[in-house]
Amino acid sequence: MEGGKKIRSVDKAMVLLELLGAGRSPLTLSELEQRSGLPKSTIHGLLSTMREHHMVSQQADGRYCLGLRLFELGCAVSASWDVTGVAAPYLAKLSAVTGATAFLAVRSGGEAVTLDQSSEGSGLRIVSEVGCRLPLCCTSQGKLFLAYCSSEAEQARLIRAYPPVPHTPHTITDPEQLAEELRKIRAQGYAVEDGEFRIGLRSVSAPIFGLGGTLQYALGVVGLFRRTTAPEFTLAIHLAIEYAAQISEELGRRP
């Protein structure tokens, strides 16, 4: 939790919405009870309230699914995110030139969420579907978000809340080593992942800044690069930094 008082009823409602979204198909009251661990009476009350607001819908057979209002809200959010439209041509160019998968990401709590991607120059689709969530401590986009936290206290809080998990032998789990890595990223202006999340995969992420110079998004490339010192990876670094800066400019940031 980022801060503030947690409202339990809202939290429970979010759990139900997440389950309905993850299920990919309508769920019965009993299935929701089993998967959420919440009392059936609580679930029924929350669903009834959300149904009145069209957040959930109940089918003729009694099963529940996500409601039309959520789709409408999602469209409103998408329309407000100019960054995806601005970044799209840069993602396509980045992928075409590097022959790898280019991606745009944003931080959500303790994860980096993929907003968009392009595999124009690669037959290999590395990043999973838009909306996938990746850990902070072992991906280039995640480490970038950590490195550009508003303060060291905020950075430390995030690492405590979402500590590094050894996904591969290369994952940085030592606190001092991770802190040094984040200082290096902040100083050089980009982050590199060298097989820390998936063996064989390497990626680079560069910062997209918003008004006031705060980090808003990460633009990057991930692929089966031979090594991080290879010429093709060096090119990916330069292009990611260049394109991220141009996107920042288009979003309204000025030096």
Mean of all residue-level pLDDT scores: 88
Helix content: 40-55%
The tally of beta strands, per DSSP, is: 8
Q: How many alpha or pi helices?
A: 9
Class inferred from helices and paired strands: alpha+beta
Give the strand content.
15-25%
Poorly predicted runs are none
Order of helices and strands, N to C? HHHEEHHEEEHHHEEEH
N/C terminus separation: 33 Å
Largest sheet: 6 strands, antiparallel
Q: Indicate the overall shape.
A: globular
Radius of gyration, in angstroms, nearest whole number: 20 Å
Strand arrangement, major sheet? 5-4-3-8-7-6
Please write out the topology.
Blueprint: H1 8-23, H2 29-36, H3 40-52, E1 56-58, E2 64-66, H4 68-80, H5 82-98, E3 101-108, E4 111-118, E5 133-135, H6 140-147, H7 152-161, H8 175-188, E6 191-194, E7 202-209, E8 215-223, H9 231-250
Antiparallel strand pairs: 1-2, 3-4, 3-8, 4-5, 6-7, 7-8
How would you summarize what this structure contains?
The chain has 255 residues and is of the alpha+beta class. It has helices spanning 8-23, 29-36, 40-52, 68-80, 82-98, 140-147, 152-161, 175-188, 231-250, and strands spanning 56-58, 64-66, 101-108, 111-118, 133-135, 191-194, 202-209, 215-223.
